[in-house]
Amino acid sequence: MAVAATLACALAPASVSWAQTPTAAVPAATGKPVKMALIESLSGAFANTGEAVYRNIYWAMERVNARGGVALSASAGGARPLALERYDSKGQNEEALSALRAAIDDGAQVILQGNSSATAAVLIEAINKHNEREPNKRVIFLNYSAVDPILTNEKCSFWHFRFDAHADMRMAALMEVMRDDKALKSVYLIGQDYSFGQAVLREAKKQLSAQRPDVTVVGEELHPVGRVKDFAPYAVKIKASGAQAVVTGNWGNDLTLLVKAAREVGYEGSFYTFYGNALGAPAAIGDAGIGKVVAVADWLPNVPGAQSEAFYQAFRERFPKPQDDYVHMRMQLMVEALAQSIERAGSTDPVAVARQMEKASVQLSGQGGSMRAADHQFQQALVVGVMDKKGANGVKFDVEGSGYGFRVVRQIAPAKAQQPHTCTMQRP
Questions:
Q1: pLDDT per residue over 305-328, tens digit each?
Q2: Where is the signal peptide (predicted)?
Q3: Which sign does the torsion angle of CA 60, 342, 139, 4 carry?
Q4: 161 and 241 together in one domain
């Protein structure tokens, strides 16, 4: 059911990195570890996405522990290291709920999940009930990728904090580029058939109607999540529709297989994506994607600036294998926000930590953001990139050794990226 591995031994490095060797001597954290549980797909169709998350969170926790852990007073237990255990949800909601129960029984105080909005929704509901039923064993939920807007609107929870931009925010950022593409007259909408994929298509139609009423939606399709092995029939329909561009929120293998199939049937249109910047997608589409694959993110490796470049190079030094090249700034900021909130709370009590998390404001390597207390939606800059060959202007770094990277064409400030909410927060 659940596979657990501690931070101390689960990912033993082949070489020591900057994150493990602070420049000045730092006393080791000797207090009781703060237990964190990663509940994610670590096997099956989306195992690569779960492992990518694990590497990011592990690296972020290494950095905190390298500086002495979370600084608490002696009366609060002294400096405490962060400890990570991983639980395999196998991409199933019931498995995720079983993993949640196991994690709580194992003493976890922080739950981490994100690679499915449907799973996030059931975890929020379960955590709400658990925290009310067992106030002495409460947990908080940090969400790094589940971006269905409903999670910080109708389903908002005091215990849940989202660190990724939700689907409406991401779509608005993509629309910044689509609005300027005057040659674009027709699009095909395709997505995974669950809450997030449905939200992406719904918002795409809404924003196209408002900002590009001259653009015609010539096709709309939802497909099963993680179960389609051959996207050729979908690609054929996309090509036959005459669509000049595809808009999709697909992620993981559902995106990689889609763009690969499109290339193989000779589709020459553009792809406006939420996640087209990694996990095999650039290599799958090759030269056909140059200038045509667009991706929105909280950060991209080719974001200009020395601090951003040093951050990316440090990650690649830590994880040098090309297939491990998928770093998320938001996950680094999430762990920094957790450490900050524990220190300001002066304890690991979930209520006290959550109250401080509502006020979290963090900076790292020239990037940063702050939590909006009203709905627990992290507010941060967004960027939009266009695929090009490594070495082209603005493309110093490629993706996964593919020879293709993303040139940043839009940088959207937090104030412009934010969206209104309908959350009515119930606080303890």
A1: 999 999 999 999 999 999 999 999
A2: 1-19
A3: positive
A4: no
Nearest 5°: phi and psi at 135? Answer: -60, -20
**Within-domain flag for 425:** no
Taking residues 46-64, what's their average pLDDT? 96
How many whole angstroms separate alpha carbon 352 and alpha carbon 360?
A: 13
pLDDT at residue 252, as a whole number: 84
Strands (E), 70-181: 82-88, 110-113, 140-143, 160-162
The mean-pLDDT minimum among 72-81, 150-159, 381-390 falls in: 72-81
Band the pLDDT of 27: cuts 50, 70, 90.
low
Q: Is 283:404 a contact under the CB 8 Å cutoff?
A: yes
Helix, strand or coil for residue 369?
Answer: strand
Q: Are residues 172 and 279 in the same domain?
A: yes
Going by C-beta distance under 8 Å and a sequence separation of 6 or more, which residues neighbour residue 279?
A: 48, 49, 52, 251, 252, 253, 255, 256, 326, 400
Number of domains in the chain: 2
Burial of 328 (0-12, 13-18, 19+ CB in 10 A): buried
Same domain, 188 and 284: yes
- Based on the fold, state whether residues 287 and 350 are members of the same structural domain: no
pTM over 0.85: yes
Q: Are residues 32 and 135 both part of a single domain? A: yes
20 has a pLDDT exceeding 50: no
| Same-domain check for residues 237 and 220 | yes
In a domain, 8, yes or no: no
Mean pLDDT, residues 88-109: 97
Same domain, 267 and 396: yes
Backbone φ, ψ for residue 232 (5° rounding): -55, -45
- pLDDT of residue 278 exceeding 90: no
